[in-house]
Amino acid sequence: MVKYFGLTFFIALFSFQAIASESDVEHEAEEEFNVSEMIMHHVKDAHEWHLWGPEHGGTSIYLPVILNTKDGIKIFSSSHFYHGEVIHDDGNHYYKGSGPAEGFGMFHEKIYELDSHGKLHFENGHVHGNVKPMDFSITKNVTSLFIGSLIIFLMMFSCARFYKRNGAVAPKGIAKFMEPLIVFVQDEIAKSHINEKNYKRFVPYLLTIFFFIWINNLLGLIPIFPGSANLTGNITITLFLATLTLILTLVNGNKNYWGHIFSPPGVPKALLPIMIPIEIVGIFTKPFALMIRLFANITAGHIVILALISLIFINKHEAWGALSVPMALFISVLELLVAALQAYLFALLSALFIGAAVEEAHH
Fold first, then answer.
1. What would the pLDDT profile of 171-212 be if each residue is shown by its tens digit?
2. Are 232 and 217 in contact, with CB atoms under 8 Å apart?
3. Which of 40-49, 148-157, 351-360 has the lowest average pLDDT?
4. How many whole angstroms separate alpha carbon 232 and alpha carbon 214?
5. Does residue 5 surpass a pLDDT of 50?
6. Virtual CA dihedral for 17, 20, 26, 31, nearest 10 degrees?
């Protein structure tokens, strides 16, 4: 009950923030509420961690910008963009850097070098002709990555320290929570889908991705700060995780695995020129499906919740909150299940792919 109350409070807080933000925007410029712009602002990465108040005008944590330019490495706060001059150019607007960020402009959270006249040039709504330096900034998603990784490390370290001090005893504290999950991943995911000779080698990896995805899914849903980060809804993160599974599958593939790809059993030789390319494509479509499944499910959950809250502003009446907030609460509770389910599915399918690579030939 306490969990549900906390979740309700979070959604009410988000609604209040959005109402305050939208009221400020309408006061400054009589513009229609743009649902897609608001949703994309919340699900995309950013160089600030917005807490409350109007967008780029309320309370935020400004994160460090790190750029590799032709003049060397430049490091400065993102506040030099958000508090800089806003340039409007034929329907496009961008932030012109000030102070140490002078000579740079930020458009849709992408940083570019300004031309000799101090401008960005646009073509069909995209920046055209301006140099884009290599950006190694600590963005909101990177910060969330550090927080999630720290939480996982502390959980695992505390659990390991308990058993080191007490030996094989009944677990207490956080170990009591962690042990069933660790045993579940080891027995029901790794051991059940990878042969008994090899499964122990892959348990650390499967445990890592399971807890990494699960913890970061929860952080995206129940944030430490108001305004969550959409880490596991970022396709570069899901691409990296899927690539790790692909590398492990290819590196550990045995003779039997590669034999099924380049010489599928029971296939006439005349069909091999067709079947071999299909099997090779299949190697990459499996991790691709892993990447898209996690990315799409997590992002969709955020979008649905934000769209429901947006009903209040689309209809321009607070009474719609009586409908949209309970619906958003229901989806949020459902997302708690999805957060664990997506971690389980990613680890399970990774185990299946790795298990197929190390499976021994049946005689």
1. 888 889 999 999 999 999 999 999 888 899 999 999 999 999
2. yes
3. 40-49
4. 9
5. no
6. 10
Residues contacting 129, CB < 8 A, separation 6+: 115, 121, 123
For 112, list phi and psi in degrees, rounded to 5. Answer: -130, 155
Query: Using N-to-C axis directions, what is the helix angle for 174-184 and 140-166, rounded to 10°?
Result: 100
Give the pair of three-digit tokens for residue 335: 């997302």
Q: Where are the domains of the chain?
A: 64-137, 141-358
Phi/psi at 97 (5° precision): -65, 150
Per-residue pLDDT tens for 130-179? Answer: 999 999 999 999 999 999 999 999 999 999 899 888 888 888 888 899 99
Please give the Cα distance from 330 to 325 (Å, whole number). Answer: 9
Q: How many CB atoms lie within 10 A of CB 104?
A: 26
Quick: pLDDT tens for 210-239. Answer: 999 999 999 888 654 456 788 998 999 999
Radius of gyration of the chain (CA): 25
Q: Cα separation of 42 and 308, whole Å? A: 14
What's the pLDDT score for residue 31? 53
Name the token pair of 283.
């190697």
Q: What is the full DSSP assignment across 265-324?
A: TT--GGGHHHHHHHHHHHHHHHHHHHHHHHHHHHHHHHHHHHHHHHHHHHTT-GGGHHHH
Helix axes 321-358, 199-221, angle to 10 degrees: 170
Whether 53 and 17 have beta carbons less than 8 Å apart is answered as: yes
User: Residues, the chain, total?
Assistant: 363
